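Lay summary. Proteins are chains of building blocks that fold into shapes, and those shapes determine what they do. In this project we predict the shape from the chain. Here is one chain we studied, written as its sequence of building blocks.
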Amino acid sequence: MPKKPIAEKLIRKVELKLDGKTWPLAVTHNVLIECEELTGLNLIAGEVNLLRPSAKLVRALLYVVLRRAGAKYTLEQVGDLIHPENIVMVQEGLLTAWAASMPAPDDAERPTPAVP
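And here is the predicted shape, written in a compact code that computers can read:
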């Protein structure tokens, strides 16, 4: 089994129950890059509304995080897993996983003021 990247070891996982299994979701920088490649959307620059994401973004992000968690679904199969009864749960899980990947405000490195 391949060694997990350090980012996936450090980020708190968010569990999402889907298709009869509980998946540990983690949003890393590479997850965002893969999602951008699938959607053409710049996720970091604010081109997307994370509180009201498009169906394309939800499917792509869920696909990438599930694949990183060991799932073998195709992109289309992930789309089939999302339905009106679980869309809110899926969106909340993805948003919570994304928020969990961010450093706590106190942990974020603060810039050092320039000394004249």
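What the prediction tells us: Residues 6-100 form one domain.
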